[in-house]
Structure formats: C-alpha cells, structure tokens
Amino acid sequence: MGTPETSREPCPDRILDDIGAPSAWGRSAVRPSTSSRVFTTPQWGAAGGGAQAVRMNAPRVGGSFAVWGGLFSAFDCTMVYVRQKEDPWNSITAGAVTSGFLRMRQGAAAASRSALFGEVFRAREEKGETALREDSRTKVLESFDAPSTPVPTFDFK
C-alpha cells in the first residue's frame, strides 16, 4: 500500500495531465448524451438540433471535467507533499476535498455531503484498483510457477 505509483507523472506535470485528459473525456461524453436531442427538436431538423446541442454543450462539460481533474490533482499533489509519501489515502482525501470545495457555494451542508460522497467514491475506486492489481499480480506469479508436466530434456550423446 505504501508503494509509489510508477505509471504517473511527477506532481507538477501530473496537474497538467489531469486537466487535459478529463477535458477530452467531458467533451467526448457530451456526444452520446446530447445527441439524443436529435429526436426531440423538430424545429431545427433532425440532424441540426443534435449537432447544435453537441457544439453548444461540449465546451461547458469539458471545462467542468477539466476543473474537477485539475483541482483533484492539485489537492493530491498537496497531500503527497505534506505527507511525504504516495499512497491511496492521498487520493481519497483529495477526492473528498475536491468534491467539498466545488460545492462550497451551495453552503456548508451541501459541501460536507459532497465531500463525504467524494471520499466514499474515491475509497471504493482505490479498493477496486488495489483488488485488480493484487489479482493480476497473483495471476502473473502463478504463471511463473514450476510446470506440472515434466519439461523434456535433450541429451546428446
């Protein structure tokens, strides 16, 4: 649990990576959800209404994803700096702080509920990642065990 993740960038670069990727996810997530308006907007024509809805909503949703990703990564890097170790607790705490921070305008009660939800969500996600990592590690180690059938040897005389 205390092993560092080697697949991620170091902290200053990680923030920029975590702004760009969620922005792209958000922009691409708009297409399937918003293009359903094709059938509900007859005044613009079938294809025109869906295409216009996608064009209008993609920057907004992509920006929201980018803000969440950037704040999460900044709080995650702050936790790494303060605690001087990289483990799942940094990510769980960063998820709670990010969710609460983004809901502060709605009041303390909404921010605390959102922080609790963000913390539970990140904890479940980290638990799943850990389980997958352990499962794949076990399968890899089992594949390197001694074979059950004898290996043929070739003795040349």
UniProtKB/TrEMBL annotation:
GO terms for biological process: protein import into mitochondrial matrix. The keyword Coiled coil does not apply. Its main location: mitochondrion. One of its GO terms (molecular function) is protein transmembrane transporter activity. One of its GO terms (cellular component) is TIM23 mitochondrial import inner membrane translocase complex. It comes from Spirodela intermedia (Intermediate duckweed). Keywords: Membrane, Mitochondrion, Mitochondrion inner membrane, Protein transport, Translocation, Transmembrane, Transmembrane helix, Transport. It is a multi-pass membrane protein. It comes from the Eukaryota. It is found in: Mitochondrion inner membrane. Belongs to the Tim17/Tim22/Tim23 family. This is Uncharacterized protein.
